[in-house]
Specification:
Elements (H helix, E strand, L loop, with lengths): L1 E2 L15 E3 L2 E3 L5 E3 L6 E2 L15 H12 L4 H19 L6 E6 L5 H12 L5 E8 L2 H10 L4 E4 L12 E7 L5 H5 L2 E12 L5 H7 L12 H5 L2 E15 L2 H9 L3 H4 L2 H8 L4 E14 L2
Parallel strand pairs: 1-7, 5-8, 6-7, 6-9, 7-8, 9-10
Antiparallel strand pairs: 2-3, 3-4, 10-12, 11-12
Helix pairs in contact: 1-8, 2-3
The structure holds S-adenosylmethionine and zinc ion (ZN).
């Protein structure tokens, strides 16, 4: 797979195409966005900011980086790559344009970084662009420090900064899909890949921290269907991960929503564990946009 720079970015203020400049990006109306030292651009304008420092905190980003860097979730990245590759190859056979992949809520960039590495290691059967964005500047800053093949942006999924009808595939891993935002930039026939926790995800950890555990299915797709999406593929992935020490357990906890929910007894029970084996149970669902 060949990776080329994305050329489908749009100005968050007027949706005009953004042209790459030596120091960042600019639109024809004169709005300009500098590239930070780390290589990302901040396209999160104040009108699209719900708080002063939105999204995951620096501490959450650092915990996720330490945990994911150990390779514990590598099978999820590999499965995602297979799905992206299959979609990109099918579309590439019909058109010469690059297949534009966007990771919405990319966090500290683990999955796109893996995708870029896997893409480079595979023969160039198709051409892709890889763009990751997140509303947390801490996350994007960490992402941009590692991978230069990817375009990294601070932006909000409610207003994805891409030209209308330009995105082939949106990845949303452990994230928050905002279907109206996704519709505004996807090509008809484009798709969204959702990767969400299944009922047994991290069940061993949840059994330690909560008096009672609910085994819930991923969120229903009603809103997506109403917005013009149809589910065309679903699949599960299940494996075990060994957390060899309290630091690894603490990092896993810190990157999940449980970190904010658990009470003191749960925190103490988890802190007493020297190691833990957890089940990873995820659902992958691909939805096609057919407006
Ligand atoms: C649970 S984390 C998942 C991060 C990454 N996808 C992963 O799996 O490692 C959710 C991410 O969504 C980001 N986020 C939350 N609301 C967002 C929004 N409206 N637009 C873009 N990103 C958002 C957070 O900052 C956080 O990095
Ligand atoms: Zn503009």
């Amino acid at each position: 797979m060949q990776i080329v720079p994305a050329t489908n970015l749009a100005c968050p203020l007027d949706q005009l195409p953004l042209q790459a400049r030596a120091v960042g990006y600019a639109c024809a109306n004169g709005h300009s966005y500098d590239r930070a030292r780390e290589g990302y651009a901040n396209l999160l304008v104040v009108q699209h900011k719900a708080s002063l420092d939105p999204g995951d905190s620096k501490a959450m980003v650092q915990a996720r980086r330490r945990f994911l860097d150990c390779g514990a979730f590598a099978p999820i990245a590999a499965r995602t790559f297979d799905i992206v590759g299959a979609c990109a190859t099918a579309v590439d056979a019909e058109t010469a344009a690059p297949f534009n992949v966007v990771d919405a809520g990319c966090g500290e960039g683990y999955y796109l970084d893996r995708l870029a590495k896997l893409a480079t290691a595979n023969s160039p059967a198709c051409t892709v662009t890889l763009t990751g964005f997140d509303v947390s500047k801490w996350a994007v800053r960490a992402a941009a420090r590692c991978t230069s093949d990817v375009t990294w942006l601070v932006a909000n999924s409610r207003h994805p900064p891409f030209v209308a009808d330009s995105v082939n595939m949106i990845l949303c891993l452990f994230g928050f899909p905002i279907w109206e935002g996704f519709c505004s930039v996807l090509k008809p026939g484009g798709c969204v890949l959702l990767v969400d926790p299944g009922p047994d995800h991290l069940i061993e950890l949840r059994e330690i921290i909560y008096p009672e555990v609910k085994r819930s299915e991923p969120a229903s797709l009603e809103t997506a269907v109403a917005a013009g999406f149809q589910l065309d593929h679903q699949d599960g992935l299940r494996f075990e991960v060994e957390l060899p020490n309290p630091a690894a357990i603490a990092d896993l906890l810190a990157m999940t929503p449980h970190a904010h929910r658990l009470g003191e007894p749960g925190r103490a029970a988890l802190a007493a564990r020297q190691s833990l084996t957890v089940t990873v149970d995820v659902r992958l669902r691909r939805l096609t946009y057919q407006p």
